[in-house]
Amino acid sequence: SQKIEQNSEALNIQEGKTATLTCNYTNYSPAYLQWYRQDPGRGPVFLLLIRENEKEKRKERLKVTFDTTLKQSLFHITASQPADSATYLCALEDNAGNMLTFGGGTRLMVKP
Amino acid sequence: NAGVTQTPKFQVLKTGQSMTLQCAQDMNHEYMSWYRQDPGMGLRLIHYSVGAGITDQGEVPNGYNVSRSTTEDFPLRLLSAAPSQTSVYFCASSEQGFGYTFGSGTRLTVV
Question: Closest Cα partner for B91 from B40, B26, B39, B41?
Fold first, then answer.
């Protein structure tokens, strides 16, 4: 069955360091991979989308890589700040563009 | 722009009652979807629509109905509420190849 795995354990890092979150998937051929941020009590907020033929995408302090051979995406936040503390969700969209399936999310805690 | 608007924000139902969760978007997106989010289960797709008049089932459709008579609106109906439907419900809209815009959610408790 299709599965999207994110580290369920919280990631604790020091302010100013680079946070790296991992998303692995199996039995899936996604057309797009997306990353979202979710704060407690709020809906997910879209951050970045990367297409299957792209290796890397950047937006300000954010960087996403996509390796379709390893079936893995890495999400990096450079120069992390306490305000970056949130849960980050990985999601895959199929080729038909009809369904966006989410991983369980990883909670990031940035300590001052 | 309001984006995606969900109502109500909170609701308590008794087992067996029915209700409709409202979702409206003002971005002229063709694609709309409903998710539920439960602790330890992540976001799971209930139903989705790729345009007015077209709906399809997601991962967990049982107990829910949807319709899409206009591009803007995508209501979710609970036919006979059960405690297992206690959850936070999110509506989202998008265009293919772009990120999804989510509403602020409806927190539903079925007693």
Answer: B26
How do residues B27-76 score in pLDDT, each as one tens digit? 999 999 999 999 878 899 999 999 999 999 999 999 999 999 999 999 99
> Of how many residues is chain B composed?
111
Domain count, chain A: 1
**Closest C-alpha among A106, A107, A109 to residue A23:** A106
Domain that holds residue A52: 3-111
Q: Which of A42, A46, A103 sits opposite B42 (nearest CB)?
A: A103
Question: For A98, which of B48, B92, B97 is closest by C-beta distance?
Answer: B48
Asked if residue B19 lies in contact with residue B78, where contact means CB atoms within 8 angstroms, the answer is yes
Cβ neighbours of A99 in B, within 8 Å: 45, 48, 58
Q: Is the pLDDT of residue A74 over 90?
A: yes
Nearest chain B residue to A87, by CA:
B42
Distance, in Å, from the CA atom of B75 to the CA atom of B96, rounded to the nearest integer, reads 21
Q: What CATH number is associated with residue A74?
A: 2.60.40.10
Nearest CA in chain B to A47: B99
pLDDT, tens digit, for every residue of A6-20? 988 899 999 999 999
Token digits of residue B48: 């989705």
